[in-house]
Protein backbone atom coordinates (compact mmCIF):
# COMPACT_ATOMS: atom_id res chain seq x y z
CA UNK A 1 0.00 0.00 0.00
CA UNK A 2 1.36 3.37 -1.02
CA UNK A 3 0.51 6.45 1.06
CA UNK A 4 0.19 9.27 -1.48
CA UNK A 5 0.86 12.14 0.90
CA UNK A 6 3.34 10.20 3.06
CA UNK A 7 4.62 12.16 5.98
CA UNK A 8 6.54 10.88 8.95
CA UNK A 9 3.46 10.18 11.02
CA UNK A 10 0.95 9.35 8.24
CA UNK A 11 0.87 5.61 8.99
CA UNK A 12 0.42 6.16 12.73
CA UNK A 13 -2.28 8.75 12.06
CA UNK A 14 -4.03 6.38 9.63
CA UNK A 15 -3.95 3.51 12.15
CA UNK A 16 -5.44 5.83 14.78
CA UNK A 17 -8.33 6.86 12.51
CA UNK A 18 -8.98 3.24 11.47
CA UNK A 19 -9.15 2.17 15.12
CA UNK A 20 -12.27 4.33 15.63
CA UNK A 21 -15.77 2.87 15.06
CA UNK A 22 -16.58 5.16 12.14
CA UNK A 23 -18.66 4.64 9.04
CA UNK A 24 -16.84 4.00 5.80
CA UNK A 25 -18.28 4.74 2.37
CA UNK A 26 -17.67 1.96 -0.12
CA UNK A 27 -17.78 3.30 -3.67
CA UNK A 28 -18.19 0.76 -6.42
CA UNK A 29 -19.63 0.60 -9.92
CA UNK A 30 -22.72 -1.06 -11.33
CA UNK A 31 -23.24 -1.03 -15.09
CA UNK A 32 -20.86 1.90 -15.31
CA UNK A 33 -22.73 3.96 -12.69
CA UNK A 34 -21.06 4.85 -9.38
CA UNK A 35 -22.70 3.60 -6.18
CA UNK A 36 -21.97 4.45 -2.55
CA UNK A 37 -22.71 2.20 0.42
CA UNK A 38 -22.19 3.27 4.05
CA UNK A 39 -20.64 0.33 5.89
CA UNK A 40 -19.06 -0.74 9.16
CA UNK A 41 -15.51 -2.04 8.87
CA UNK A 42 -12.72 -3.80 10.68
CA UNK A 43 -9.08 -2.94 9.88
CA UNK A 44 -7.00 -6.11 10.24
CA UNK A 45 -4.14 -7.79 8.38
CA UNK A 46 -3.62 -4.70 6.18
CA UNK A 47 -7.17 -4.94 4.80
CA UNK A 48 -10.59 -3.50 5.51
CA UNK A 49 -13.17 -6.19 6.28
CA UNK A 50 -16.80 -5.30 5.60
CA UNK A 51 -19.86 -7.46 6.25
CA UNK A 52 -22.52 -7.64 3.59
CA UNK A 53 -25.60 -9.73 3.02
CA UNK A 54 -25.46 -11.33 -0.41
CA UNK A 55 -29.27 -11.48 -0.65
CA UNK A 56 -30.26 -8.06 0.67
CA UNK A 57 -27.25 -5.79 0.00
CA UNK A 58 -26.30 -4.87 -3.54
CA UNK A 59 -22.61 -4.13 -2.95
CA UNK A 60 -21.39 -7.77 -2.66
CA UNK A 61 -22.68 -8.49 -6.17
CA UNK A 62 -21.12 -5.27 -7.50
CA UNK A 63 -17.76 -6.25 -6.00
CA UNK A 64 -18.05 -9.69 -7.56
CA UNK A 65 -18.54 -8.09 -10.99
CA UNK A 66 -16.09 -5.18 -10.62
CA UNK A 67 -13.55 -5.56 -7.77
CA UNK A 68 -11.97 -2.11 -8.22
CA UNK A 69 -13.42 0.30 -5.69
CA UNK A 70 -12.71 3.17 -3.32
CA UNK A 71 -13.40 3.68 0.37
CA UNK A 72 -13.59 6.96 2.26
CA UNK A 73 -13.65 7.33 6.04
CA UNK A 74 -14.16 10.68 7.76
CA UNK A 75 -14.25 11.59 11.45
CA UNK A 76 -15.85 15.01 11.82
CA UNK A 77 -16.90 16.93 14.93
CA UNK A 78 -18.58 20.28 14.29
CA UNK A 79 -18.15 21.48 17.91
CA UNK A 80 -14.37 20.96 17.96
CA UNK A 81 -13.39 21.43 14.32
CA UNK A 82 -11.87 17.95 14.08
CA UNK A 83 -11.78 16.64 10.50
CA UNK A 84 -9.78 13.46 9.82
CA UNK A 85 -9.93 11.70 6.46
CA UNK A 86 -8.60 8.45 5.03
CA UNK A 87 -9.29 7.68 1.36
CA UNK A 88 -8.41 4.32 -0.19
CA UNK A 89 -8.27 2.99 -3.74
CA UNK A 90 -7.88 -0.72 -4.33
CA UNK A 91 -9.63 -3.99 -5.00
CA UNK A 92 -12.07 -6.12 -3.06
CA UNK A 93 -13.13 -9.73 -3.07
CA UNK A 94 -15.80 -11.79 -1.37
CA UNK A 95 -14.67 -14.08 1.43
CA UNK A 96 -16.66 -16.49 3.59
CA UNK A 97 -17.37 -15.14 7.02
CA UNK A 98 -15.28 -16.12 10.00
CA UNK A 99 -17.30 -16.16 13.25
CA UNK A 100 -14.56 -14.61 15.39
CA UNK A 101 -14.06 -11.75 12.91
CA UNK A 102 -17.83 -11.16 12.67
CA UNK A 103 -17.95 -10.89 16.45
CA UNK A 104 -15.00 -8.44 16.57
CA UNK A 105 -16.61 -6.24 13.91
CA UNK A 106 -20.03 -6.19 15.58
CA UNK A 107 -18.52 -5.68 19.06
CA UNK A 108 -16.65 -2.68 17.67
CA UNK A 109 -19.91 -0.90 16.81
CA UNK A 110 -22.40 -2.24 19.36
CA UNK A 111 -20.32 -3.33 22.33
CA UNK A 112 -20.50 -6.77 23.88
CA UNK A 113 -22.79 -9.34 22.29
CA UNK A 114 -25.48 -9.12 24.97
CA UNK A 115 -26.03 -5.47 23.93
CA UNK A 116 -26.45 -6.15 20.20
CA UNK A 117 -29.68 -5.42 18.41
CA UNK A 118 -31.45 -8.83 18.12
CA UNK A 119 -31.25 -8.90 14.30
CA UNK A 120 -27.44 -9.14 14.45
CA UNK A 121 -27.40 -12.33 16.52
CA UNK A 122 -28.32 -14.36 13.42
CA UNK A 123 -25.45 -13.02 11.28
CA UNK A 124 -22.77 -15.46 12.42
CA UNK A 125 -23.28 -18.78 10.69
CA UNK A 126 -25.72 -17.39 8.08
CA UNK A 127 -24.04 -18.09 4.72
CA UNK A 128 -25.80 -15.11 3.12
CA UNK A 129 -23.54 -12.86 5.19
CA UNK A 130 -20.12 -12.59 3.60
CA UNK A 131 -17.01 -10.55 4.12
CA UNK A 132 -15.79 -8.10 1.56
CA UNK A 133 -12.01 -8.01 1.93
CA UNK A 134 -10.74 -4.70 0.60
CA UNK A 135 -7.02 -4.55 -0.13
CA UNK A 136 -5.75 -0.97 -0.52
CA UNK A 137 -3.30 -0.07 -3.23
CA UNK A 138 -3.11 3.65 -2.45
CA UNK A 139 -4.25 5.78 0.46
CA UNK A 140 -4.55 9.47 1.21
CA UNK A 141 -4.43 10.48 4.89
CA UNK A 142 -5.35 14.03 5.85
CA UNK A 143 -5.93 16.07 8.96
CA UNK A 144 -8.16 18.89 7.75
CA UNK A 145 -9.13 20.08 11.23
CA UNK A 146 -9.76 23.75 11.82
CA UNK A 147 -9.83 26.15 14.74
CA UNK A 148 -13.15 27.62 15.76
CA UNK A 149 -13.34 31.25 16.80
CA UNK A 150 -14.56 31.90 20.30
Strand content: 35-45%
Rg over CA atoms: 16 Å
Q: Total strand count, please?
A: 8
Q: Mean of the pLDDT scores?
A: 91
| Fraction of residues in H or I helices | 10-25%
The N- to C-terminal Cα distance equals 41 Å
Sheet of most strands = 8 strands, mixed
Question: What class would the helix/strand composition place it in?
Answer: alpha+beta
| Order of SSEs | EHEEEEHEEHE
Helix count equals 3
Indicate the low-confidence ranges by residue numbers: none
Q: Which descriptor suits the 3D outline? A: globular
Walk me through the structure.
It is a single chain. Helix content is 19%, strand content 44%. The longest helix has 12 residues, at 99-110. Strands 1, 2, 3, 4, 5, 6, 7 and 8 form an eight-stranded mixed beta sheet that branches. The mean pLDDT is 91. It is of the alpha+beta class and 150 residues long. It has three helices and eight strands.
Name a few traits of the molecule.
3 helices; eight-stranded mixed sheet; 150 residues; globular; alpha+beta
Concise synopsis of the structure shown:
The chain is α+β, with helices and mostly antiparallel strands.
Give the topology, please.
Elements: E1 2-3, H1 10-18, E2 24-30, E3 33-39, E4 42-44, E5 47-53, H2 59-65, E6 68-77, E7 82-96, H3 99-110, E8 129-143
Parallel strand pairs: 1-8
Antiparallel strand pairs: 2-3, 2-6, 4-5, 5-8, 6-7, 7-8
